[in-house]
Write a structure and sequence with these properties.
Layout (H helix, E strand, L loop, with lengths): L5 E3 L11 E3 L14 H15 L3 E4 L36 H13 L3 E6 L42 H5 L23 H4 L30 H17 L3 E4 L7 H13 L12 E3 L5 H10 L5 E2 L2 H12 L32 E3 L5 E4 L16 H10 L5 E3 H4 L23 H12 L7 E6 L3 E6 L3 E6 L6 E6 L7 E4 L7 E3 L5 E6 L13 E6 L12 E7 L25 E8 L5 E7 L6 E6 L4 E5 L4 E4 L5 E9 L9 E7 L35
Parallel strand pairs: 2-3, 2-10, 3-4, 4-5, 5-6, 6-7
Antiparallel strand pairs: 1-11, 8-9, 11-12, 12-13, 13-18, 14-17, 15-16, 15-18, 19-26, 20-25, 21-24, 21-26, 22-23, 22-25
Helix pairs in contact: 1-2, 5-6, 8-9, 9-11
């Protein structure tokens, strides 16, 4: 059967044509990077850039009640710099390491897609829960959320100490379902599936009945404060795009509000119309389309309908109707995200070495696709050929399931962390042939063969047949006389477009008999592809120096705090990772512009640069490594003030983190307190 169908035209912006890799599995861990996944991803980045990955989806990076995987948020303003719950860092690492990861990815031309959890929080109370309970709460009593800060570090873990902590964004029982402003406990919006369920209704505000630090709240408290935090978060990290968790479980109007403000109200960090954003909404095509429409198409969704067809094809033993696949995509594809696997659909049981040993299917949102299945290549060829921003799962791109080194491999080593050749080739073709610059057409389909053309860019043939080569003659948008080759390498033959604009292509079976072991797909394009060059760039990050942020505890990173009155005592802004001969620029916003400040820059040993008074400046280091940024009042008679410090810099694209980071030792240095090597891997 032949089908001529224009599915959608050139509606995709730059962010919607990129390739996103999910940079973690559910219980991510590597013994060489204990509680420092940011370092793992930083060191992996050059390999990803070389393959054509231009966006990496990273796990939630804010403090959880333990060294957990990120989906149990506790303190939104703790990025691994505050000492609370008995530790400082997170599963990702310290704040310094996190910001370095972002900068190293940018230096490799990779965008950072941050996972955000806006539906719930958890872990109220000190390390043992002291102070977390409010006896006045209607439902979950553990809804007193108080946080350490530079002005109120933890002194003990008693209830009284906890309830006096004055860190930004405290939360009370009225901020969660159910409450007097929205007395609801059931259904998608109100049920507390994973912890106290955030309520974004205007009337969800009030005060604690027993907290010492108990500032008044007003209408729309949670929406206003979550918006404020997201803008802070984007500026602090230099985030490029977003994946939002469980968007079915909070108001779409709140999501649209947050997205709009991240696009247009984040100052220099505003993402604009092109900002990548996707919501995790598990549902049918109509539900996905409705959600996209309700957020004004500021975000897309993972296309679960298409994924269902892909799963059916993989498990269909060659009897799936390939021609049915295009019709399974969601209707609203302006920002759609095709996928094969992710951490929620992929829950293997693991041996001690990290090899697959069965599947924990009860924990999967949808059934997994085994990356060792011979039709995995067909699955990814579909996901990359259709409209949308394709995602590739780390366990599909890399072979992690049978080599016995999941927890011990060096991510820089292709031998220790090998790539699946077919998936890497599909990524290469998508980027170098520039699939998404061509309109999406389906010139041919049958039960065993689907042919998709990205208009005059590539012709992608996909089959689920295990043993039979497929051949099809299709009408194409390539000009007559164009010589095409199969960039998959499955065959060395070429094909020439005839005067009638028709061309015959071949597609290999899934049994691996084709050249290079290619399975299930062929990608025909011009002999000389247009090419792909990642945009290596600088990073800009902003620190807000206020007493309700950061932490002054000796076991914290001791960063943050407003400038003290009548003093020239320095405050540590943070650390950035710089490259020799690569300029660093900075500018400051002052809450009191009449009182000058001094900026001081330090290497690991000494002051290397000072500018006073200054609201902007630059410095070119002669070394590669950590640069500590400090700020102080220039005059001892100045009042205290809040300062915002904006740094722009470019680290080396390749970094071996252990060469620069403090080693775990017993000397009491900061590193000892965030790398808790002996803590078990969390299953939460």
């Amino acid at each position: 059967m032949k089908l001529f169908l224009l599915v959608i035209g050139l509606l995709f912006g730059a962010s919607q044509s990129k390739v996103v890799m999910q940079g973690f599995w559910w219980d991510f861990w590597n013994d060489n990077y204990p509680n420092a996944w940011a370092d793992y991803l930083a060191e992996l980045s050059p390999r990803l850039a070389e393959m054509g990955i231009d966006s990496v989806w990273v796990p939630p990076t804010i403090k959880n009640p333990g060294y957990w995987v990120g989906y149990a948020p506790f303190d939104h303003y703790d990025l691994g710099d505050k000492y609370q719950k008995g530790f400082t860092g997170t599963r990702i690492g310290t704040k310094d390491e996190l910001l370095r990861m972002v900068a190293v990815m940018h230096a490799n031309g990779i965008d950072v897609i941050q996972d955000g959890v806006l539906n719930h929080v958890t872990g109220a109370g000190a390390a043992d829960g002291s102070g977390g309970s409010d006896p006045a709460g209607w439902n979950d009593k553990y809804t007193n959320f108080r946080y350490v800060s530079f002005g109120t570090p933890a002194t003990t873990d008693t209830s009284s100490d906890y309830l006096s902590r004055a860190g930004r964004f405290p939360k009370n029982w009225q901020n969660f379902h159910n409450n007097p402003g929205h007395d609801c406990r059931d259904g998608d919006i109100c049920a507390g599936y994973w912890g106290p369920d955030v309520c974004y209704y205007p009337g969800a505000y009030g005060q604690s009945s027993n907290a010492a630090y108990n500032p008044p709240q007003s209408s729309d408290y949670m929406r206003n404060e979550m918006r404020r935090w997201l803008i802070w978060y984007k500026k602090q990290m230099g985030i490029d795009g977003w994946r939002f968790d469980a968007v079915k479980h909070f108001l779409p109007s709140a999501m649209e509000d947050f997205l709009y403000n991240l696009q247009f109200s984040a100052g220099w960090a505003s993402g604009g119309d092109e900002m990548f954003a996707v919501g995790e909404y598990v549902g049918g095509g109509a539900e996905l389309d409705n959600w996209c429409n309700s957020v004004q198409n500021r975000a897309g969704t993972f296309d679960f309908g298409l994924r269902g067809s892909i799963y059916g094809m993989v498990t269909g033993n060659g009897f799936f109707d390939m021609g049915s696949i295009p019709g399974s995509q969601q209707g609203n594809r302006l920002r759609t995200v095709p996928f094969v696997n992710n951490h929620d659909t992929f829950r293997p049981k693991l041996t001690a070495e990290g090899n697959y040993n069965g599947w924990d299917s009860s924990q999967e949102l949808a059934a997994h696709i085994d990356p060792y299945d011979g039709r995995l290549s067909a699955a990814y060829a579909i996901a990359f050929a259709v409209d949308g921003t394709p995602t590739v799962f780390i366990e599909d791109l890399f072979d992690l399931g049978q080599l016995g080194n999941r927890f011990t491999h060096d991510p820089k080593s292709a031998a220790q962390l090998p790539v699946r050749s077919d998936i890497a080739n599909i990524i290469w073709c998508h980027q170098h042939l520039r699939f998404k610059e061509g309109a999406y057409k389906v010139p041919y389909s049958s039960g065993d063969l689907l042919v998709i053309e990205r208009s005059a860019k590539a012709i992608i043939g996909i089959t689920d047949s295990w043993t039979v080569w497929q051949t099809a003659t299709v009408t194409t948008d390539f000009p007559a006389g164009t010589v095409l080759k199969d960039h998959s390498g499955a065959t060395v033959e070429t094909a020439t477009v005839g005067g009638d604009r028709r061309v015959t292509i071949k597609v290999p079976p899934c049994n691996g008999e084709a050249l290079g072991g290619r399975r299930c797909y062929a990608i025909w394009g011009p002999l000389t592809p247009p090419g792909y060059t990642p945009e290596q760039r600088e990073t800009t990050q902003e620190w807000e120096m206020a007493d309700d942020l950061g932490d002054s505890h000796p076991l914290s990173l001791q960063q943050g705090g407003k400038l003290p009155a009548n003093s020239i005592e320095t405050r540590t802004v943070g650390r950035i990772f710089v490259a020799a001969s690569s300029p660093v620029t900075f500018y400051l916003f002052l809450s009191d512009s009449l009182n000058p400040v001094t900026v001081e820059l330090y290497n690991e040993n000494a002051l290397v640069h000072s500018e006073s008074p200054s609201t902007q400046g630059s410095y070119t280091p002669n070394f590669t490594g950590w640069l500590t940024v400090k700020v102080r009042n220039s005059e001892a008679t100045s009042p205290g003030q809040v300062v915002w410090v904006v740094m722009t810099y470019k680290p080396p694209a390749q970094v071996t983190t252990d060469l620069f980071d403090a080693k775990l030792n017993a000397t009491g240095d900061w590193d000892l307190y965030h790398r808790m090597v002996n803590r078990p891997r969390s299953k939460l």
